[in-house]
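Q: What does the predicted 3D structure of Class I SAM-dependent methyltransferase look like?
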Amino acid sequence: MAEHEVLSVTRAAYDDAAELYARLFSDSLRDSPLDRAMLDVFAESVGAGGRVADLGCGPGYVTGHLAGLGLDAFGVDASPAMVELARRACPGLRFEVGEMAALGLPGGTLDGVLSRWSVIHTPPTELPPVLAEFGRVLAPGGHLLIGFSATDGPDHPTQSFDHAVTTAYRWSPDHLSGLLRDHGLTETARMVREPRPDDRRRFQEVHLLARKA
């Protein structure tokens, strides 16, 4: 399936699921202290008032959390329905419909980029252009925090799985770190969380923090 077809399928699927998604996950940070801790580290690394894009922002709850941490945060999502929900939930913040591989921002204008499970539907061959765009829009010294599900081991750079919305992919942390390095983003920290007892898929969850040279 071509890149634009994958994006169209993903957009339509999330438009259809937007209301349910918001109901299920809008409070998810409350029960995720490690996720909150990584967001705290990200915010402190960027610095108060830093301009940050939450890419794949969904219904906007994490964008609002970033703003509460003192960042100048705005959200971008491919799904118009998600963006509408985000605007309703956080009327004081800016949300836009857009594509991660073509953000339409001048280069070097962001202090931080958050990509929290927003690359999981990006086919492996299409991920490098997305990471290149992350690197392009970050200012020198800017920070990226990217979250994703891990593969079963280093022998599996990527693995696909059946997601409730549409086909998704998980990544070897070392492989993804290497891809970031290819685009001028050097890993500075990682957090690997083991599956919770109630996790259906039993995947490790990973956050990588990286810095643009």
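A (community wiki): The structure tokens above were generated from the sequence. The chain has a mean pLDDT of 93. Residues 104 and 149 are 28 Å apart (CA to CA).
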